[in-house]
Amino acid sequence: MDVLLGLQWGDEGKGKVVDVLAPNYDVVARFQGGPNAGHTLVFDDKKHVLHQIPSGIFRPETLNVIGNGVVICPIKLRAEIESLQERGIDALSNLVLSKRTQIILPTHRALDAAYENAKGQAKIGSTLKGIGPAYQDKYGRNGFRVGDLLRKDFKERYEQLKSAHWKILEFLGASPDLEAEEKTFLEAVEFLKKVQLADTEILLNEALADGQRLLAEGAQGSLLDIDFGSYPFVTSSSTCIAGACSGLGVPPRRVGEVFGIFKAYCTRVGSGPFPTELHDNTGELLRQHGHEFGSTTGRPRRCGWLDLVALKYAVMLNGVTQLFMMKADVLSHFDAVQICIAYKLPDGTLVQTMPYEVSQHDDIQPVYKTFKGWGLLPESLSWKQNMPDELEDYMAFITAETGVPISILSYGPDRSQTAFNQNVLCK
Ligand code: GDP
User: 301: Cβ below 6 Å to ligand 1?
Assistant: First the structure.
């Protein structure tokens, strides 16, 4: 099993890369997160955004698995399947859903909003899709799983959990009208029975034993990990490598390549520390040139220079074996570009490793190294033939600092705008 992980705060461009890599794999699987993911793929001049379905879905010969570590919203999953069907993609034929996947109920969504409201100024910038409360119920051992939909007492158990949620909602002073949403939810639950349901941990291990190639596709990013992200401004699942094993039921010794994907700069959505954030015109230029607006929420993303302290931390946590650098074209618009190589803490100490205190201080100062910009890139970029020296220097520095080679460089949203470093590329 190879694993593809975002090394920053999400939105690194995972969708594009999985789509590029998918032909090398028989199975693509999602292992954590929920409908808060928004993976954008562009091909044949069309844009496709996937939220819960793995990015191999556009290739009929690839099996796509939603693993046990994911939390799904039946309403959104149905809408996603139907929208693919409208475009002529028969998602039901090559999609399999784990019976152990947890389900997001309408009351989870209402709870998400009520909890976030109760936090007031300290809100974490949740996408309000019910993901946090669904994971809370999973770990509180109250959760609802896809396999439960097939039980005779499904309705009774649903009512029980719903009434428990209502007690909390009332306590928090929330009284949402969920009637219409509940009707849509129950219809979507019926629809889900058309999806192939399976013990996907067995299916995946058997596929691996048969010599099939599996790509695990991460959502969000390593710096949003529930343990290692800037807590509490994090997502509610394990976005790092260990999450791939527990979220699919595949043992660690099966892990082969770990592809770490990062943007040539940084973005973050929602609240939380972001040491290299640029509040000036440079930040605005990055946002405009990079079209940095959330694909799910439409929210403007916070933008800043590449943070090597954070990148090295993510590389360490995940045991990354190959790096993929995205959006090099966005930096083409700058004469000089910067990389943060250390943090200066409020007491003056310089650190080059991620400090625990990053969650507590918003006055950590980045220390930068400046690089010459590479200007506009050729329409078709080849690693050996026309790679600008400045871009090569930028990548060589990142490789030297992280100890990991860059094997893919992306310089535009289209599948074709991808350069491969044949010396290190995945076998
Ligand atoms: P994901 O969640 O990690 O898949 O990332 P998103 O899909 O939210 O964001 C990536 C965005 O960048 C999408 O709109 C992609 O089409 C776009 N994109 C991906 N790679 C590149 C690239 O190299 N250059 C540019 N300009 N855009 C890219």
Answer: no
Mutation test residue for ligand 1: of 11, 288, 331, 381, the one with most atoms within 8 Å of CB: 11
pLDDT score at 357: 82
Is pTM beyond 0.70? Reply is yes
Instruction: Find the 41 Cα to ligand 1 centroid distance in Å.
Output: 8
Q: Given this model, what pLDDT does residue 427 score?
A: 44
Distances 294 to 33, 40, 300 between C-alpha atoms, Å? 16, 10, 6
Ligand 1 within 6 A of CB of 265? no
Cβ pair 342, 309 in contact under 8 A = yes
Q: Is 411 in the pocket of ligand 1 (CB under 6 A)?
A: yes
Q: Does residue 11 have an active-site annotation? A: yes
**Which residues are CB-contacts of 238 (< 8 A; sequence separation ≥ 6)?**
32, 69, 225, 226, 227, 246, 247
Residue 145 has what pLDDT? 95
Higher pLDDT, 245 or 296: 245
- Whether the CB of 221 sits within 6 Å of ligand 1: no
Q: Catalytic one among 2, 19, 26, 39?
A: 39
